[in-house]
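OP here, attaching both records as promised.
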Amino acid sequence: MSSQASVRRPPSRFQRTGDAVVRSLLRSPLHRVLSGRLLLVTVLGRKSGREYTNPVGYADHDGALLVGTTAGWRRNLRDGEAVRVRLRGSEIRARAEVITDEARLAALAPVVVSANPIHGRYAGIGLEPDGTVDRDDLRRAMANGYAIVRLIPV
């Protein structure tokens, strides 16, 4: 039997409305208000073939974009798969790499959490005083489906 913490709830009406507003802003000339921390990623549903566009927080790292998430959209991705990304007002293509192993997550999560502290609070991932990830927090987040999607522009 799964624990209550691992049960996924569909997005609330408030969340769906907020996402719609953010999507509109990121596609508009006013994108600069949000595009320093948020981008849009468009993925295809594996079963439905339908496009899903999600606003997500990101961090620049070694020529790639890192997105920490527990959201279901990332389950549609396969390593190396092409996705569309709207980054700072421009549409680009990127190759996706889904990272789920603890060692790589421990190395990359501090980058994501430092760039976007709100993400760290939302995901329940804190940093130690030396800047490394709190391993217990990371393991709890992983148990709830946490992954980092590395988007490599092509």
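Record two, same layout:
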Amino acid sequence: MNLLILVIIFTAVGGVLSVMAASVFLLLQDNHRDYILPHGISFAIGALLAVAFWGLIPQAFEEVKPEQFQSLSGTILAGVLGFFVLEKLLIWRHCHYGCCEAHGDDEQENEHDHKHSHHSHAHKSAGTLIILGDGIHNFVDGILIAAAFLTDVKLGIVTSFAVAAHEIPQEVGDFAILLHSGYSRNKAFFYNLLTSLTTVLGGVTAYFLLGNLHDSLPYFLALAASSFIYIAVADLIPSLHKKTDMKTSLQQIALIVAGVLLICSLHSIAHNVEMAGQGIPLSRNS
């Protein structure tokens, strides 16, 4: 079979399969999903931070020379600041055309409505950012799958299933974030499925331009990592501080740790499977 067709099929498997598996979360009854959703936010925080610090950032630094470490670190910093500015613009846009028009005769009531709308739009912007960040991340996954296929077909197949496996818990977290941001189940599924297709785009792009993408790949990884760090720290963690009782706090900590441990475990398993399939790590610097 033509190698390009294999890349398209298995990048689709690596991206779409994880979304389809995670979408089982959306099939739960409303009362069950509403009960699980706050816990899902805690889990998503751990998953996003683990993907960034355990997966994307180390891999990015493996792909560059020591003299490029500072520029790569600067990319992560610029990404965090850039996502802050982007979220500000998203909130400003929503407020400028929506909640800021709420002011009228009853100033106190409208001020309360304005603040409520502002928080609502802040949650909505978190959903927009997770879609953007996940799209970048999936694009990079597609590049890695295509690189594996160009090395060895068996390694490419193994890598695509490894990507799908470690993406599932993160996609569950993404669904939780989108629902928390006010998206309906249908819209959450549609946008998550849409971003999963950037895996195919990354694979096809890498198939034709892998040599040219090699130097920029670490910076894609850094930008994806910065988006996940920003979302977890700036948007999700503050929402956990609304409940300060001991029981809820301990549950939040436990679920964050669970998200970290699961992603780290799956990442280690996927890495070991890749090494077993080829005898060497996927990194092209090895």
